[in-house]
Design a protein that fits this description.
The protein has 61 residues and is mainly alpha-helical. It has one domain. It contains 2 helices and no strands. The protein is globular and about 45 Å long.
């Protein structure tokens, strides 16, 4: 079975909130399935990259 792929479009405010809530979830991690924690770490990295890219692009404008 193929994994389901979803794509989201966020404005900068939603992107910042998504990053914050992901960081909060990692900070308050209570254990459980380690793959969930690995996913949150990956997601945090991807969100941070998106924030950096947006900052770079808005600085060029």
């Amino acid at each position: 079975m193929d994994d389901i792929v979803a794509t989201f479009s966020y404005d900068i405010h939603a992107l910042r909130l998504e990053y914050k809530t992901t960081c909060d979830a990692l900070e308050h991690w209570r254990g459980g399935d380690p793959t969930e924690q690995e996913f949150l770490i990956w997601k945090k990295d991807q969100l941070f990259r998106s924030l950096l890219q947006q900052s770079y692009e808005s600085a060029e404008a």
